[in-house]
Design a protein that fits this description.
single chain; mainly alpha; two-stranded antiparallel ribbon; 6% strand
Length: 72
């Protein structure tokens, strides 16, 4: 079922009327549509903590060590 509501996504404000972007910090589907319309890379609007660089650093610096094969 399609919704008849419309939402405005502002890439410059990193916000959308739907509220999902503000709630999660991750661009919502409406922001994705705007990015596709203007041929923009959505990853430029993602928080840095979700980048592969930050993910790799989390484990490289030794803060968290992946678990070895652990059996129950």
């Amino acid at each position: 079922m399609m919704s008849s509501r419309t939402f405005r996504a502002s890439l410059s404000k990193r916000a959308c009327d739907c509220g999902q972007w503000k709630l999660s910090g991750i661009p919502c589907s409406y922001a994705l549509v705007v990015c596709r319309q203007y041929v923009l890379d959505i990853t430029g609007f993602m928080p840095e903590c979700y980048s592969t660089t930050e993910y790799t650093l989390t484990y490289t610096l030794g803060f968290f060590a992946p678990l070895a094969d652990v059996e129950d």
